[in-house]
């Protein structure tokens, strides 16, 4: 079948990336885009050769006139539940751009909104499509490093407004920061809300779905004039030991251009070995008793149907198969539990049991 795809709400600039994937898919067609602000759709309309009749400022009109099979949603984090509730009655599948939501309660609203529709909700985490992290998951599954005992995550970038769709570089103005939801606490802004879900969700994937017992987090709100954090550190206590998840806006360089120090990515310690897996690398480094000095292992390119979220989603739904890993609601919800507990811990200044 040919999949009709609509992109609704352009709050997050990743909409351009996801629409490009839809545009390049041989069995998909972009039938419409919608945003309250018509100017935010200009680039997408031009890049994907959309007609004026395919561009809407009224999302309901977009849904009614285009009848999409799949809707890509990119709203501000605090509005994820609201937008799933708006779109779910249309009978379309939904890809929601990360994070899952601004709170666990909102994530659960999203799950409830999709119940009974017979359609699937996916949460897209762009780091899933790094070949290094995909290979890390395969090595863990092979048993080469034994049981996962620790996950160490450090990630971020120079800041969310220092790049646009397809990672095009730009330098934000103070006015842009003031206007952006990324820098507004009520909208789910801040590095913890923006990036912690990456670490906790992929970390849960590496950890085979295990949940921590207790979480403690700290953020730096003292050294900037913003209402949101640009740096946070979360420690999670599992039955197997401690794991650490660190988020940073303000890295020395953007990791997709030049890895900063510390490097952005993951280090996994297992009972029988370790793996270092850095964002955008074409290899991982595996250390075992047989390779105590560590050995680089090639991370193969990700090919169809696992090359990007749009083709993966279309393949799974078209084959009547469930989503696996971080895109699934099950794994993403555990990641959100950790994020919620970390947020509350940072605000209250104490360790807390995992929120359910």
What does the model show?
With 356 residues, the protein is an alpha/beta fold. It folds into 2 domains: 3-124, Rossmann fold, CATH 3.40.50; 128-308 and 334-353, 2-Layer Sandwich (Dihydrodipicolinate Reductase, domain 2), CATH 3.30.360.10. The protein has 10 helices and 15 strands. The protein has helices spanning 14-24, 42-47, 59-66, 80-87, 104-114, 131-142, 174-179, 191-206, 309-318, 329-348, and strands at residues 3-8, 28-34, 55-56, 70-73, 93-97, 121-124, 148-157, 214-219, 231-238, 241-249, 265-270, 273-278, 283-288, 295-298, 352-353. The chain has a 9-stranded mixed beta sheet.
Q: In order across it, which strands form the biggest sheet?
A: 14-13-12-11-7-10-9-8-15
The profile of the biggest β sheet is: 9 strands, mixed
Number of domains: 2
CATH architecture of the largest domain: 2-Layer Sandwich
Q: Please give the CATH class of the largest domain.
A: Alpha Beta
- Count of beta strands: 15
Return the CATH topology of the largest domain. Answer: Dihydrodipicolinate Reductase, domain 2
Helix and strand arrangement:
Layout: E1 3-8, H1 14-24, E2 28-34, H2 42-47, E3 55-56, H3 59-66, E4 70-73, H4 80-87, E5 93-97, H5 104-114, E6 121-124, H6 131-142, E7 148-157, H7 174-179, H8 191-206, E8 214-219, E9 231-238, E10 241-249, E11 265-270, E12 273-278, E13 283-288, E14 295-298, H9 309-318, H10 329-348, E15 352-353
Parallel strand pairs: 1-2, 1-4, 2-3, 4-5, 5-6, 7-10
Antiparallel strand pairs: 7-11, 8-9, 8-15, 9-10, 11-12, 12-13, 13-14
